[in-house]
Write a structure and sequence with these properties.
This protein has about 220 residues and is of the alpha/beta class. The chain is built from nine helices and six strands. The radius of gyration is 17 Å and the shape is globular. It starts with 9 loop residues before the first helix and ends in a 10-residue tail after the last helix.
Length: about 220
């Protein structure tokens, strides 16, 4: 069974694609897309990987679920397609960048320029049924994306993992803290941000500082 993913990831994930759980997952997703409106569109499901080849990945942002409103999700966590109004979490991400780095608030919420620089914007679940948050959780996606995190941890060095909120922070157990950097904070959602758990974390500045120390090119967070 072939999965349409950037070829740089294939050597590391090919064995995963052959496992029974992944075959069941593919069957489930195909059925869901056939009978229901689902997001992102089929060709965008693996966009996070397609825009961030394995060898380029130096920052990992972990989200939970794709946006479930029409036209929003584009396969990158927290990102929306051009011309789509920014969801509340994304608004708070941009506000923190503005405060942290003085970068003006952008008109586009499409984070592909970050991905193209080596930021893997990985949702734990890569698909969702329209208007039903979490509807594709527990079907196998989490097994797959946990494996992705473990492979990055095992095969690479000095990757910066940004864990925002309780769900993402649970993924810390998958990361070798002796060779990678983990930055944790509250989630950028209004509920968390308004309680003081998001703003002022300076994760974007800190990420670039860690990349610089590792001899890597820093991320241009402007869009």
């Amino acid at each position: 069974m072939q999965v349409d993913i950037h070829p740089s990831w294939t050597p590391y994930l090919q064995s995963e694609f052959a496992k029974p759980y992944f075959k069941d997952l593919v069957d489930f997703v195909k059925l869901e897309y056939r009978h229901h409106q689902c997001f992102p569109k089929g060709t965008d499901i693996f966009n996070a990987f397609d825009h961030c080849p394995f060898e380029n990945a130096k920052v990992v942002v972990i989200g939970q679920d794709p946006y479930h409103g029409p036209g929003q999700a584009n396969g990158l966590c927290f990102s929306v397609n051009d011309g789509i109004s920014h969801p509340p979490s994304l608004v708070n991400i941009f506000k923190e960048i503005e405060q942290d780095l003085g970068i003006p608030y952008p008109s586009s919420g499409n984070l592909m320029p970050w991905a193209d620089q080596g930021v893997l914007l990985l949702n734990a679940t890569l698909t969702v049924r329209a208007h039903q948050a979490g509807s594709h959780q527990g079907k196998g996606w989490e097994l797959f994306t946990d494996t992705v995190i473990k492979i990055i941890s095992e095969k690479k060095n000095n990757v910066v993992f940004l864990l925002w909120g309780g769900y993402a922070r649970k993924k810390k157990r998958l990361i070798d803290l002796n060779k990678h950097h983990v930055l944790e904070s509250g989630h950028p959602s209004p509920l968390s941000a308004n309680r003081g758990y998001w703003f002022g974390n300076k994760h974007f500045r800190k990420t670039n500082s860690l990349l610089e120390q590792a001899g890597e090119k820093v991320i241009d967070w402007s869009l």
